[in-house]
Write a structure and sequence with these properties.
One of its GO terms (molecular function) is hydrolase activity. By secondary structure, the protein is an alpha/beta fold. The chain has helices spanning 42-53, 72-80, 84-100, 116-127, 169-181, 208-225, and strands spanning 4-9, 15-21, 28-34, 57-61, 104-114, 132-138, 156-161, 186-191. The model has no long low-confidence stretch (mean pLDDT 96).
Length: 227
């Protein structure tokens, strides 16, 4: 890993941690990276490092406060135990900490999330619309997180697998319709042979072609929209 763990404060004085990766040149536009249901595992840290390699200053807040797992049952328990009020505090604290960091050159951030984090990416863009100028959702899901889409100001980029049993194509179409009906800018890419977690190269569902295509679109989208 090229980055490091840092601590940041929330508005109510609590202290949380996250993984920060900075470009080799020392500064760049800010991106918040949001974890899958496993926790702040190495894969998410590597996404931060990859973004830093392309010039972004990336921060992944630890939404589980130090807990992580490789058990689906435990991951489901951790995800369902995630309180939305505390999650909002963590997200706001992370965004403010990143924008205040001298390595961040932008006045707003992009949010990039996977699985649980994909839904949190939408939530962050809706909860803090004046601080988020780009929102990326990789197959986002959480039954209790319902972002107020009407509040989103940032353009939304979504990536989904047609074989995903958790985020079905019906759910994808409904999300796209809701964004369109609310007058939001939303571009979705769906991959016919891809399953849930297709971007995670440590997961059995990893789909190299889909992941590489999504990465290209992601980099361009962030470069064009983080301001």
């Amino acid at each position: 890993m090229k980055g490091r763990m840092i601590e940041f404060n929330t508005s109510n004085g609590q202290v949380f941690s996250g993984y920060l990766s900075i470009p080799e040149k020392g500064k760049g536009p800010g991106a918040i990276v949001l974890q899958e249901w496993w926790g702040l595992v190495d894969h998410i840290k590597q996404v931060c490092d990859r973004l830093a390699a392309f010039g972004f200053t990336a921060l992944a807040p630890d939404m589980y406060k130090g807990e992580q797992t490789d058990s689906p049952d435990q991951a489901d328990r951790l995800m369902m135990a995630l309180g939305i009020d505390e999650s909002e505090q963590i997200l706001q604290g992370a965004i403010k900490a990143l924008l205040a960091n001298q390595a961040c050159t932008s006045k707003k951030v992009g949010t990039v999330g996977f699985c649980l984090g994909g839904q949190l990416s939408l939530y962050a863009a809706a909860a803090d619309p004046d601080m988020v100028s780009a929102c990326v959702d990789f197959y986002g899901i959480h039954p209790n997180v319902n972002p107020p889409i009407e509040n989103i100001k940032a353009p939304v980029l979504g990536f989904f697998g047609e074989k995903d049993p958790y985020v079905t194509m019906e759910a994808v179409r409904e999300l796209k319709k809701n964004l369109d009906d609310a007058g939001k800018t939303a571009i979705f890419y769906t991959y016919p042979d891809a399953d849930h977690a297709f971007f995670n190269d440590t997961d059995p569902n990893y789909h190299q072609q889909a992941a590489e295509d999504a990465w290209r679109h992601l980099r361009q989208f962030l470069a064009e929209n983080i301001s």
